[in-house]
Amino acid sequence: MTETSLELPDDDPCAFCDYLTGRRPFTVLCRTDLIAVLVTRDQRGIGHLLIIPTRHYPTLLEATPQERHALIDTVAAAAAAIDDAYERPGIAVWQNNGTAAHQAIAHLHFHVAGTLPGGGTDFGEVPELTLEQTDQIARHLTGPTRPPICQP
Fold first, then answer.
1. Is 53 exposed, middle or buried (0-12, 13-18, 19+ CB in 10 A)?
2. Which of 86, 97, 147, 149 is most exposed, with the fewest beta carbons within 10 Å of its own?
3. Digit-coded pLDDT (tens) for 35-62
4. Is the dihedral angle over the CA atoms 114, 123, 134, 96 positive or is it negative?
């Protein structure tokens, strides 16, 4: 792992790793050897997804070229799926590295969400959805006529 000067959040154990191993329940929309797509329980936009590497590392600075390629391809596929499923006027993509950039979980992740009815996304308090609700979002995004978000 590359050494960085970034200050990172202290979140041991890692929530995303717990989701990937099934230690904590969460909606995993799809997964490959390199990446996974999660439906976040705090929907800050329409169809809000998290694209994460399956290997634990904190920031984009530690990603291998292969992981970076898989991550950005999946971000693009997730944006296309949200656009197709929800017909939003905009798609927001954001990613933070280090606590100074407001990174809250020290496992690299990209957020992808359709814009809200008034525009933008919600960075304030939002209600936490149930697993049944996030499973429903996953089903809506992966309908039978939609291309897969995760590519093997």
1. buried
2. 147
3. 999 999 999 999 999 999 999 999 999 9
4. positive
d(CA 62, CA 114): 28
For the chain, the helix, strand and coil percentages under 3-state DSSP, each to the nearest 5: 30, 20, 50
- Secondary structure E strands in the chain: 27-31, 35-39, 46-53, 91-94, 110-114
Residue 93 counted as domain residue = yes
Residue 96 belongs to a domain: yes
Place of tokens 């995760």: 150
Domain interval for residue 53? 24-118
* CATH code, domain with 100: 3.30.428.10
Residues of the chain with pLDDT under 50: 1
* Confidence at residue 152, expressed as pLDDT on a 0 to 100 scale: 76
**pLDDT, the chain, mean:** 93
Number of structural domains, the chain?
1
Quote the pLDDT of residue 67.
Answer: 97
Which amino acid makes up residue 81?
Answer: A
Q: What residue type is 109 in one-letter code?
A: H
